[in-house]
Amino acid sequence: MIRLILVLLFVFLFLVLSTPLMLAEWIIGKFNMPLRDRSSLAIVNWAFRCVIRLSGTKVIVKGEENVPKDTAVLYVGNHRSYFDIILTYVRVPRPTGYVAKLEMLRYPLLNVWMYFLHCLFLDRKDIKKGLKTILKGVEKAKSGISICIFPEGTRNSTDQDFLPFKEGSFKIAEKADVPIQPITLVGTSGIFEDHLPFIRKQTVIIEYGKPIDIKALDKETRKNLSAYVKDIIADAYYRNLEELTELQKQRA
Predict the structure, then answer these.
(1) 161 phi and psi, to 5 degrees?
(2) In tens digits, what is the pLDDT along the chain, a chain of 252 residues?
(3) Best CA proximity match to 92, nearest among 57, 45, 51, 139
């Protein structure tokens, strides 16, 4: 329970004490948006790294060299934990907005930082509004802002390893002409979701696959893009799950 208390206390204090920084970031954005993008990224990344340390999470990262540094990308990954966002955001090399559920707007102060970080709020109940959100993501990607989306549509809390990947999740990459960057996360639900309400020490594996250029794919693969990307992530998932299981046995 102590880890949960420490994480919640840190998040609360960060959001409250960073209020002056929010004002400063807002002012900076009025005159120099690229500077605000860099400074907001650095501030939130510092906070997320603190959360990772407080949670006692050890991260094994593979394939990070695959992530393009000179262009925006559409990050696509599996999703089983709130920590998926924290663990992946600290590794992005450029401003990146995450596609979040509309309900996240309810949280004061947090929603301000999400706005500064170019996050998009998706109304999953309204198709038209959802389409508008995707189009905003296209514009951001065209302007050089990477976007991260979890195509399962929600955290997977079932006994299945994956939920179906939604086709619409890939429209940002198609319409903005940016690469798809697969991310595979293994073991993240072991930090919190597997034993609510406790946060426990956990080793997780994050693997970045090779970026996918949609235009380089054949017609049939482009037609079944969601299944193609899901297979890539699933292959890495089962391979790394085996490795993580073996590591846990050795430490038991």
Answers:
(1) -70, -30
(2) 899 999 999 999 999 999 999 999 999 999 999 999 999 999 999 999 999 999 999 999 999 999 999 999 999 999 999 999 999 999 999 999 999 988 899 999 999 999 999 999 988 777 788 889 999 999 999 999 999 999 998 888 877 889 989 888 899 999 999 999 999 999 999 999 999 999 999 999 999 999 999 999 999 999 999 999 999 999 999 999 999 998 887 776
(3) 45
Q: Are 235 and 161 a contacting pair, CB within 8 Å?
A: no
Q: Rounded to 5 degrees, what are φ and ψ at 80?
A: -130, -5
Q: pTM of this prediction?
A: 0.94
What is the rounded distance in angstroms from the CA atom of residue 163 to the CA atom of residue 183?
A: 15
Distance, in Å, from the CA atom of 164 to the CA atom of 136, rounded to the nearest integer, reads: 24
Give me the amino acid identity at 96.
Answer: T
The position carrying tokens 């960060």 is 14
Place of tokens 């990477």: 146
Closest CA to 207 of 88, 97, 89: 88
Residue 30 token pair: 């009025």
CB-CB contact of 228 with 209 (8 Å): no
The CA–CA distances, whole Å, from 127 to 69, 79, 132, 168 equal: 33, 22, 9, 11
Residue 131 tokens, joined: 């389409």
